[in-house]
């Protein structure tokens, strides 16, 4: 069933099929009817070009004077008789089919509803319980929403009969509820909260004060909040409010006079009070508005005192309002009876709606009359007619009220100062706590930083010691192995030299004659005197050095070691010896036992560093004092990596960048230890 109350199309397959058929037939019928509307004679014979229904059948509006010009069934006429509702003959069959399907649809809907009703009936008990629970949940939600709108609190329920309302407000005077109930409170604003205490040794409170000053609202607020609490509702008051549980709550508020029942104001009030005395069951709350009013003031005052005291003696809590002097005197002189009054502005006599406990209030009848516009002579005459004793009492009461008002203002000023002092003390204590906390945080931060720096220094010192120990151990190992390695290296070099010297291809032939002393040119056949080897001079280098090719190997030697020979340079021997003084990119696979330099150009750092380390080891074993590392310029990565390797290396005494004739910054010249 849809939210609109209709049965959904898919409630059953039959209903879905029936409704699809209806849609199809209605579309066909609409097409037929629109054909008549588009006909040539439509404007002349039809009253309106629209399709309507009559008796659940689609019809057209035909002008009465043309009734014979549209064959069909007439289903009636308009109220004026000028139009006829005609069902054209071509539409009759379609209308009949639609009516038939509508009947079928109606029967299927009834069947579905009966089936659903039966299912609901089978679960009637469960649904009843669910409805009851939903009702309770709805009530709880309503209570919560009401409490939110009233800004209400949960009062403390007490068993000792105390009643205390703190900043209580009448719900109907609060803007949210007043707006919901259509009560215009915009001009007046929110209610003035009222606070009262009854039952703290005084089960009766007599409230006096000016007319329209708030006495009746205080009574209604007290009774309504007591009932709300006993219904489980939160009350519109401040935290700290106390409410007892009453067996009965009685109220005589307002004017109940009635001509029909022959009741005057006085008799109506008295009839209600008589009913209260008969039904009284303690603990009870009795609310009496203007008790003893509506009759002679003297007798009314005495009667009011007697009624209030009767309820007090029978254990009821009583809150009563009055203008009678006897009632005010009773409240001040009787143990267990408290007095309170609503205040007013001394200059304008406008009500403040604030309840003051412990003092009676003036009714201000003459002042209110003057304020409301009663002619001044009338008010003056009324003042003159008062009894002297009454006038003196009123004057004394006015003076007491003025002094009390001044006392209250002084108390309020002292309270404000006390709160300011307390707030200043709290701010000072808070500031002191913040300062101490800040100091603690700073000390903790300093201590953590000091500890961190100490740990960092210890870590760095430990790393430095460990590195020094490792270097020392490595140096010791190298130093201990140096004599052995040197001996092995010298032996290997001598063996290699012996092998080379014994190579027939490298021997100086007898016919090789030294040429007279003359400058040796590139391409000349030369002999290296220190090695006794013959080769070809291929380059003249700086600093008096030359580059000689011997058996396909390049050797860098001083020019003074070369002797020019006659004849052509010898052919290469297929690189059988493997000895070459240079180690560059073109000779990476050769042995480096006698290398004096290494060419790293084109290599990565990972490829280059092992070659440098091997060069240093080979040079140390060959007892060399200087080697050259050719790394090129580039981005400086190889140069930095080589410098890092040389730092602390056991064979290295010092290193420097190459001079202008040594390759400049693209070469590092390394001095080895002795």
| CATH class membership of the domain at 153-364 | Alpha Beta
Reported for the largest beta sheet, the result is: 6 strands, mixed
Which architecture name of the domain at 153-364 does CATH use? 3-Layer(aba) Sandwich
Instruction: Please identify the oligomeric state.
Output: single chain
Can you say what the CATH homologous superfamily of the domain at 153-364 is? P-loop containing nucleotide triphosphate hydrolases
Mean pLDDT, rounded to whole units? Answer: 81
Percent range of helical residues: 40-55%
**CATH topology value of the domain at 153-364:** Rossmann fold
Compute the number of helices: 14
The counted number of beta strands is 24
Overall form: flat
Alpha-beta classification: alpha/beta
Strand order of the largest sheet: 10-11-12-8-13-14
Strand content: 15-25%
State the end-to-end CA separation. Answer: 108 Å
Q: Rg from C-alpha positions?
A: 61 Å
Structure description:
The protein is α/β, with parallel strands linked by helices. Among the domains are: 9-122, MutS, DNA mismatch repair protein, Chain A, domain 3 (Orthogonal Bundle), CATH 1.10.1420.10; 153-364, Rossmann fold; 580-674, 2-Layer Sandwich (Ribosomal Protein S8, Chain: A, domain 1). 46% of the residues lie in helices and 19% in strands. The chain is built from 14 helices and 24 strands. It has a six-stranded mixed β-sheet with strand order 10-11-12-8-13-14, sandwiched between helices. Strands 18-17-16-15-19 form a five-stranded antiparallel β-sheet, with no helix packed on it. Strand 21, helix 13 (605-621) and strand 22 (626-630) form a beta-alpha-beta unit. The longest helix is centred in the middle third of the chain and has 114 residues, at 388-501. The two termini are 108 Å apart. Mean pLDDT is 81; it is low at 258-262 and 571-595.
């Amino acid at each position: 069933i849809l939210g609109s109350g209709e049965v959904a199309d898919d409630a059953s397959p039959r209903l879905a099929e029936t409704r699809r058929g209806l849609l199809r037939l209605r579309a066909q019928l609409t097409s037929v009817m629109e054909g008549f509307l588009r006909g040539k004679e439509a404007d002349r014979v039809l009253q309106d070009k629209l399709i309507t229904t009559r008796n659940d059948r689609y019809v057209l509006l035909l002008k009465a004077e043309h009734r014979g010009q549209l064959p069909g069934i007439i289903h009636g006429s308009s109220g004026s008789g000028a139009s006829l509702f005609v069902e054209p003959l071509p539409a009759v069959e379609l209308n009949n089919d639609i009516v038939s399907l509508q009947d079928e649809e109606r029967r299927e809907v009834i069947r579905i509803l009966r089936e659903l009703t039966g299912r609901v009936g089978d679960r009637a008990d469960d649904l009843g319980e669910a409805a009851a629970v939903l009702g309770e949940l709805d009530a709880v939600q309503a209570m919560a929403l009401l409490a939110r709108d009233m800004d209400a609190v949960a009062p403390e329920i007490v068993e000792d009969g105390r009643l205390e309302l703190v900043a209580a407000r009448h719900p109907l005077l609060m803007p949210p509820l007043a707006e919901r109930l259509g009560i215009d409170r915009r001009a007046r604003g929110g209610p003035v909260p009222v606070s009262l205490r009854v039952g703290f040794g005084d089960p009766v409170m007599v409230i006096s004060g000016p007319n329209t000053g708030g006495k009746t609202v205080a009574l209604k607020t007290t009774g309504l909040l007591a009932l709300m609490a006993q219904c489980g509702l939160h009350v519109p008051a401040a935290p700290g409010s106390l409410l007892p549980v009453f067996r009965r709550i009685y109220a005589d508020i307002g004017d109940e006079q009635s001509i029909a029942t022959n009741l005057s104001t006085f008799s109506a009030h008295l009839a209600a009070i008589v009913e209260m005395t008969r039904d009284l069951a303690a603990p009870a709350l009795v609310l009496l508005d203007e008790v003893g009013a509506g009759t002679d003031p003297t007798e009314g005052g005495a009667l009011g005192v007697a009624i209030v005291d009767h309820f007090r003696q029978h254990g009821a809590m009583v809150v009563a309002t009055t203008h009678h002097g006897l009632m005010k005197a009773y409240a001040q002189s009787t143990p267990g009876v408290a007095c309170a009054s609503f205040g007013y502005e001394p200059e304008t006599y406008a009500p403040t709606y604030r309840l003051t406990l412990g003092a009676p209030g003036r009714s201000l009848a003459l002042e209110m009359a003057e304020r409301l516009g009663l002619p001044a002579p009338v008010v003056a005459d009324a003042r003159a007619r008062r009894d002297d004793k009454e006038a003196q009492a009123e004057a004394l009461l006015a003076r007491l009220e003025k002094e009390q008002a001044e006392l209250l203002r002084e108390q309020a000023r002292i309270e404000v100062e006390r709160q300011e002092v307390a707030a200043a003390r709290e701010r000072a204590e808070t500031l002191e706590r913040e300062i101490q906390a800040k100091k603690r945080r700073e000390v903790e931060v300093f201590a953590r930083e000091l500890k961190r720096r100490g740990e960092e220094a210890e870590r760095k010192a430990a790393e430095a010691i460990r590195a020094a120990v490792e270097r020392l151990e490595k140096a010791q190992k190298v130093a201990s192995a140096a004599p052995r390695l040197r001996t092995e290296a010298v032996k290997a070099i001598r063996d290699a030299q012996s092998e080379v010297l014994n190579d027939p291809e490298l021997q100086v032939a007898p016919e090789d004659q030294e040429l007279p002393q003359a400058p040796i040119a590139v391409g000349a056949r030369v002999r290296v005197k220190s090695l006794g080897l013959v080769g070809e001079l291929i380059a003249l280098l700086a600093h008096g050095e030359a580059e000689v090719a011997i058996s396909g190997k390049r050797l860098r030697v001083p020019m003074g070691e070369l002797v020019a020979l006659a004849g052509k340079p010898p052919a290469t021997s297929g690189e059988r010896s493997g000895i070459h003084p240079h180690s560059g990119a073109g000779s990476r696979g050769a042995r480096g036992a006698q290398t004096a330099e290494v060419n790293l150009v084109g290599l990565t750092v990972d490829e280059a560093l092992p070659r440098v380390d091997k060069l240093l080891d080979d040079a140390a074993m060959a007892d060399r004092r200087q080697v050259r590392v050719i790394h090129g310029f580039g981005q400086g990565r190889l140069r930095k990596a080589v410098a890092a390797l040389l730092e602390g290396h056991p064979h290295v005494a010092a290193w420097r960048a190459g001079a202008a004739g040594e390759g400049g910054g693209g070469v590092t010249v390394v001095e080895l230890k002795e």
